[in-house]
Amino acid sequence: MDFGPYLFLATLEGLVQAAVLCLTALGLSLVFGVMRVVNVAHGEFYMLGAVLAWWITGWFINHPAVGFLLALVLGPALVGVIAWICERFILRRIEYDPEATIVATIGILYILQQSALLTFGPDARPVDTPFYFRVEFPWFGYSGYKLLVIAAAACLLSVAWFVITRTRIGLIMRATQFDRETAQTFGISVNKVYALVFAAGAAFAAVAAVLIVPIQQAHYLMGGDPLLLSFIVVIIGGLGSLRGTLVAALLIGLSDGIISVFFSPTLAKMVSTLLVALVLVFRPQGLFGVRNRL
Amino acid sequence: MKKDSSSSFKQTRTNLSRRKTLKTIGAIAGAGAATQVSPLIFPHAYASAEPIKIGAQFHRTGIGASYGRWYERTANAAVKLINDEGGINGRPVELVVEDDGTDPKRGAEVVEKFATQHKVDVAYGTLFSHVVIGSSPRAGELKLPYVVVSEGHHVASGNLNRYVFQPGITDVRSQVISMAPWVSQNLGKKVTMIFPDFAFGHDHRDYFSEAIANQGGEVLEKIAIPPTETSFTRYFPRIPRDTEVLYHVMVGPGVLTFVKEMGQHFGSKRPEIFGFIDSLEAVDLSTPQLEFLEGTYFWEGNPRYAQSNQSEHDKFYRAAVGVDDNGASLADPKDVSTYAHMFGCWESLLIIKQAMEASDYSGPKDKAAFIEAMESLSSFDEGRNHPQGSKVFNPQIHQSFGHQYISKVEGGRMNVVHKTSIEDGMYEPSGDYTKMPL
Amino acid sequence: MNTDSMSKSIGLHAAVILVLFLLQFVLPEYHHLSVTRIMLLAVFAMGFNLLFGYSGLLSLGHAMFFASGMYGAGLAAYHLSWSVPVSFFFGIGCGFLLSLVLGAIALRTTGVAFMIVTLMFSQVAYLVIVYFTTYTRGDEGLVMPEAARSFGFLGREFLLTDPMTRYNLALILLALSMLIVILLVRGRFGRSLVAIRENESRTRMLGFNTYAIKLKALTASGTISASAGAAYALMFAYIGSSFATIQYSIDPLLYTLLGGAGTVLGPVLGTFLMFYLIDIASEYTTAYLLVAGIILVLLVLFFPRGLLGTLKEKWIRWLP
User: Fold this and answer.
1) Confidence of residue B398 (pLDDT cuts 50, 70, 90)
2) Exposed, middle or buried by CB within 10 Å (0-12, 13-18, 19+), for A274?
3) What is the distance between the alpha carbons of residues B166 and B150, in angstroms, rounded to a whole number?
4) What is the pLDDT of residues C47-72, one digit of tens each?
5) All partners of chain B with 3 or more CB pairs under 8 angstroms
6) Residue C109: closest CA among chain A residues belongs to which residue?
7) Average pLDDT over residues B28-42
8) Which end of chain C is more exposed for a tag (fewer CB within 10 A), N or C?
9) A122 — contact with chain C (CB < 8 Å)?
10) Contact by Cβ (8 Å): B87, B21
């Protein structure tokens, strides 16, 4: 392939990857931003979303679009409930102690992963795209669904931005994030906010998974990558900044895509990972984060 | 997995209960007497019914779990066959399964556990090469025979030790070079390779490049995919335009994405595509978006779909393991087996039996005799014990060499179009385990 | 810290080492082999805890320090045929250099940014091992050559194939690491670390060069972790890239938190606990990770600061 089209394809792939990163990171951005706890099990909520999507779309083999829409509603709802149970009976009881939370969520990770292995099995399973559409460029063909993922990421990001900055719930969340004690004295039930945020964060991860799984596949070990990548995106973007999450996802996705044109694949991965890490070294508060008042 | 989960709260041990075993042995001994064959063919049947313990190291969890599950099913079927026919030297066989988590560290620990806690007679194992290589020094130092079904080139490379064998499946080097003549004569001489940037991917790269050059072909481009990759489209533009054959081999949970994205990239204008079925083991070919594989070719260690000229041995083996004519579980047609590899578990157990009988193995004190018996094997004939086909065994490098299959995807199934000869896969061996001390 | 608690603490640690020494004569063979492994992993966890437990810096990249020791020692023994002791110290040297250089860069950050930077450096380290598959054999890894299974030292021949030798070498490494960690954390250095953990800006205002103190802690932590990796490679005769994956950065964190961060013995206890939790549960069920998960959750509900951490908080205040 000539250089121009190749670069175009790599950029397109970078954009899709940025969209995927944005989608996966949104939930974590919420949980981490408001509660400031490291939830190691976050990737497993993503995995559950994908597995549920496989299960639900399986009922509607002849109507993939119906199954897909149903999965988009039911999957995240179920995952939200599971997350709520974890919050209510585990995390709240250890009072979100940062260290204990890590151990507890590693425990939850084992439980969810192993339950998936026992029920869903060890095989990678595909989820059909809700529609088939292959975009024909003069030089190569491209999955139409991947372009939809970019649009979906833009939509969800706008919704999240609207909820957080323009609604009462968002205001309460921001207040809790800014200062837990003061929020409490103003009559905000911090427990309720935390439960809501934790469940919503997990549900967001599941939404992302349902949207992404048709271009990947469901597998019981798939939670690891989204966890790490969304952590990276959230921190590089700056805690609690949606704009930061977007820019960081674009930065990582595009640099990964474009650098892959110029180096051999594994070397490209090394270079792009190092570059992104260096961003943080020179801007420890993240791209759009506020430096802590120390 | 659903079926297993009900019984999962107890370690799965495939032994027939002792009473049943004794009954079986009694019945066979009785049958022997009735047909005027001396009951002495089972000299130990009366002295002791202590089972022969085979420690099975399988991937129950981790990324190899798809393979591990079928390895376990195949091994169970082989053990059942052996026990139904009187066990080994009149003793029943008991499989002690431990999970290696598809991790070399745990793999080595499991081998230590086999040797010192379960006190097994032989350890028997697993697919992923890193687990085999990580485990083998411990097996050698604990003097525990370790028979693997991994298809890696590790045993044959001469770098492991005298206690490690791979008699049931051909190694990757041999598989790869045996493909080159047919590929170059039927698909094309200009090849581009896509493989994971892992050691076994490098084995494919190096051995196939050399073999295709010997056929007058060449490898135009070698695309090594980083192991952390989840999306592959960006690498396809590296495929040169004058590529005649695209050679792919991928493993891990990303394989489906890989194959689907390859289809999206090429559409109908594709070169010939030849892949190792490793890319699609345990995956149903009727999966949406895999239609583009129609007309492409795969290496298969053993044909997943029952062929029109299916041998009676394959029929027998298939039924014993519980696999239908499409290579899926009899219980669930969506549950596709790892048919191209798992035959090695069946054959290896029967080879262990053969060597134990040849050495009159009665316990760990006969380990050396057992090793020497393994090393006196030289070939296996196609048959019920070797449904995949006949094999030549090289005792110096502890490795078997067998026939390979090339299949074409036609109408959503794979039909064998070529069966290689054993000679196609022969290479100059290096190293000699038999000179190492026992 | 008064002398009474000092002597109690020294007595306790000496007793632990003594018990481990005596155990080798009574342990059944399998547990004898397992405890050898556990002791090396405990050294790794102790190294991790030196940074995390005392200075509060959470690294998600300690697998690269472990791997630097493992590959430094393993590659030297494999490709250069260096003797076992030389390879071992070379591995430690690699870990020292790597943690010093990367620490100097990564410590520009703190808190969550430090977590992510170490995580990403560690991913790069893993990819480096894979990238140089020609020398490392990547994921498959390398088996140590026969010549590296024994060594002469002070005129005596030591066989690494001998379980007794391995057990006692691992015990010596554990005792030495424990001694180093105790000396570091009991002194002025340790108190300044804790001061940083509790309030870094105040410590800085009091005139401490917190960057230098943290760099020292990170280098010591990385070097101890590397010594565990080097020993692991040479004793069990295998190096492979799986030891550089994120799993091996999470493990010492888990061991440390389980046993109790900020206690010397916590990581040791955590390592024992986690190993046997998996080993024993796997004898009863194939779903042993499910059981392990449930037990982790229960443990954390009752011992939120880890076993020894909670004990220290509630009952045994003199525990170091």
Assistant:
1) very high
2) middle
3) 8
4) 999 999 888 889 999 999 999 999 99
5) A, C
6) A284
7) 39
8) N
9) no
10) yes
A136 touches B: beta carbon within 8 Å: yes
Nearest CA-CA distance, residue B411 and chain A, Å:
20
Burial degree of C224 (CB within 10 A; 0-12, 13-18, 19+): buried
Are B94 and B15 in contact by the 8 Å Cβ rule? The answer is: yes
Which token pair is B223? 């695309």
pTM of the model: 0.88
**Cβ within 8 Å of residue C230, ≥6 positions away:** C69, C70, C72, C73, C74, C87, C88, C90, C91, C92, C95
pLDDT digits (tens, 9 = 90+) for A226-256: 888 888 888 888 877 888 888 999 988 888 8
Inter-chain contacts counted by CB atoms under 8 A, chains B and C = 106
Task: Check residue B398 and report its DSSP letter.
Answer: T
Measured CA to CA, the distance from residue B11 to residue B8 in angstroms comes to: 7
- Residue B57: is its pLDDT beyond 90? yes
Q: Are B408 and B414 in contact (CB under 8 A)?
A: yes
Which residues have C-beta within 8 Å of that of residue A195, sequence separation ≥ 6?
A84, A87, A88, A92
Q: Which residues of A6-36 are buried (b: 16+ CB within 10 A; e: fewer)?
A: bbbbbbbbbbbbbbbbbbbbbbbbbbbbbbb
What mean pLDDT, rounded, does chain C reach?
A: 90
A189 SS3 class: coil
Structure tokens belonging to residue C263: 């206690």
Q: Is A270 close to C105, i.e. CB distance below 8 A?
A: no
Residue type, A90: I
Q: Is the pLDDT of residue A287 over 60?
A: yes
Strands (E), B278-325: 297-300
Phi, psi of A293 (to 5 degrees): -80, 100
> B244: which DSSP letter?
S
Label residues B169-202 b or e (16+ Cβ within 10 Å = b). bbbbbbbbbbbbbbbbeebbbbbbbbbbbbbbbb
Write the CB contacts of C78 (distance below 8 Å, at least 6 apart in sequence): C142, C144, C145, C148, C239
CB contact under 8 A, A100 and C300: yes
Cα–Cα dist B247/B183, whole Å: 10
Q: Are B143 and B161 in contact (CB under 8 A)?
A: no
Going by C-alpha positions, the residue among C264, C223, C258, C232 that lies closest to residue C17 is C264
Position B28 pLDDT exceeds 60: no
Which of C58, C112, C115, C202 is most worth mutating to test chain A (most A CB atoms within 10 A of its CB)? C112
Q: Which residue of A has its CA nearest to C110?
A: A284
ipTM summary value: 0.91
Count CB-CB contacts under 10 A for residue B204: 25
Under a CB-based contact definition with an 8 Å cutoff, are residues A257 and A11 in contact? yes
Q: How far apart are CA C226 and CA C87, in angstroms?
A: 12
How far separated are the first and last CA of chain B, in Å rounded? 41
Continuous segment of H or E residues that includes residue C33: helix C29-55
